[in-house]
Amino acid sequence: GGFKNVLVVGADAVSRFVDWTDRGSCILFGDAAGAVLVQACDIGEDGLFGFDLHSDGDGKRHLISTFKENEADDASSENPSTTSFPPKCSSYSYLQMNGREIFKFAVRVVPQSIEAALEKAGLAGSNNFDWLLLHQANQRIIDGVATRLEVPSERVISNVANYGNTSAASIPLALDEAVRGGKVQPGHVIAAAGFGAGLTWASAIFRWG
């Protein structure tokens, strides 16, 4: 209880780490930033009902970007990614992703995680929340998780078709659009889940506003 207001920021410039000659992967990602202000509630008005968090290093090979030394001719005070496009060099190798394995991983563990968070919140069942908000990895994963949770499409927040996979920014970006668009209203309960490299995944059940 030491902090009353916390600004949570998610931002990624994934374009710096994709192989622009690989049309099978580079078109999937976007650069974005998002932020949410989390504010403490009075006693008895808790807005965070339950959460669930996991990691499994055995799957790290399915989504990875390994560290490498910069080339000598790129070692300067000026970031090479801002002077040429596509970027010539960065501190990490190109992002490598096994899409099939990531899909199987996500549609298996994310529903389980959300159900566990709902159970901890005392809200078991897909009818006890208003919106499903997932990391916007791709539409197939979003649809797959929603199907397993038996959540109809009209209760699923999705904007991946507009921006692609924006990594850490995808959940705050989608939430902001849903609020601005009038979908998410104060008092609505949201089941949110993120997943990605590591492999890691987590869920939270919270009330908006």
TrEMBL record:
GO terms for biological process: fatty acid biosynthetic process. Pfam families: ACP_syn_III, ACP_syn_III_C. It comes from the Eukaryota. The lineage of its organism: Eukaryota, Viridiplantae, Streptophyta, Embryophyta, Tracheophyta. It comes from Solanum stoloniferum. GO terms for molecular function: transferase activity. This is Uncharacterized protein. Residues 2-57 form the Beta-ketoacyl-[acyl-carrier-protein] synthase III N-terminal domain. Residues 118-208 form the Beta-ketoacyl-[acyl-carrier-protein] synthase III C-terminal domain. InterPro entries: ACP_syn_III_C (IPR013747), ACP_syn_III_N (IPR013751), Thiolase-like (IPR016039). Pathway: Lipid metabolism; fatty acid biosynthesis.
